[in-house]
Amino acid sequence: MAESTFRDAVTVILYHPQRQINVASTVRAMKNMGFRRLRLVNPREYEPELIEQVAHRSQDVVDAIEVYPTLQAALHDLTWVVGTTARHRDTPVPPLELRQSVPSIVQKTAEGHQVGLLFGPEDNGLQQAELDQCQQFVTIATDPTYASLNLAQAVLLVCYEVHMAEPPVRPERRITYPPAPLPRIDEFVATLEEALRAIDFFKSPSAPAKMRSLRSMTHRAQPNAREIMLLQAICREAIKYINKLRS
């Protein structure tokens, strides 16, 4: 078995990939760079027995591939998700160029995070709904006259930069509580929205934009599992109190 490294805390996620050849080429790119964990979300074409034709001697990666029906299901145990995008206008914070982003991505693995590298479908990339699930955003510098990258090429470039990064520095302070997994953050944000609606906070049709901002703020705060439980409990008690007053 290969030696365990910080790369084992990194999962590559292909959201709704369209073509079998790109799944196979992604497996080859991951094998080249020492990554072992691949998740596919609702792939249009996926025949694992054909991957060996493109990615020779990659059966260990193929055997570990996980397929999920939805993105939320694929992110169930991840705590830091990096979205690859060229859509500057759709991200709550501007994406950083790949090489600038890698040190912080790698450091997350030392802080106890399970990191996901999220790639969108070949035709349109990640859209707003998928980007809302990410805490960090990365763009790959290309010639602006021909900026579109093949999906597997993008995976190879990102995996190469992470592969070449310096090993992360382990924090001196012991982490008592693990980072909050993304589904728990989603649950908190949903409860927060319920509480805000209970106090009639939203005075205009801008509720989705406000909740997107609050979700982004929560992601950037990086609450641990205990903290997110506390925040959700506060919101639930507020809802109960408001309902009691109204009754």
Question: How many domains comprise the coordinates?
Answer: 2
The fraction of residues in strands falls at 5-15%
Helix and strand run: EHEHEHEEHEHEHHHH
Please state the overall shape, judged from the principal axes of the Cα atoms.
globular
- Mean pLDDT across every amino acid position: 89
What strand order characterises the main sheet? 3-2-1-6-4-7-5
CATH architecture of the largest domain: 3-Layer(aba) Sandwich
- Poorly predicted residue ranges: none
**Number of DSSP helical runs:** 9
Helical content band: 40-55%
- What do we call the CATH topology of the largest domain? Alpha/beta knot
**Assigned CATH superfamily of the largest domain:** SPOUT methyltransferase, trefoil knot domain
Summarize the structure.
This protein is an alpha/beta fold and 247 residues long. The chain contains nine helices and seven strands, in the order E-H-E-H-E-H-E-E-H-E-H-E-H-H-H-H.
Describe the structure.
It contains 9 helices and 7 strands. The chain has 247 residues and is an alpha/beta fold. It has a 7-stranded parallel beta sheet with strand order 3-2-1-6-4-7-5. Helix 7 packs across helix 8. The termini are far apart. The relative contact order is 0.14. The model has no long low-confidence stretch (mean pLDDT 89).
Topology:
Blueprint: E1 10-15, H1 20-33, E2 37-41, H2 59-63, E3 66-68, H3 71-74, E4 80-84, E5 96-97, H4 98-110, E6 115-119, H5 128-131, E7 136-139, H6 151-163, H7 182-198, H8 207-221, H9 225-246
Parallel strand pairs: 1-2, 1-6, 2-3, 4-6, 4-7, 5-7
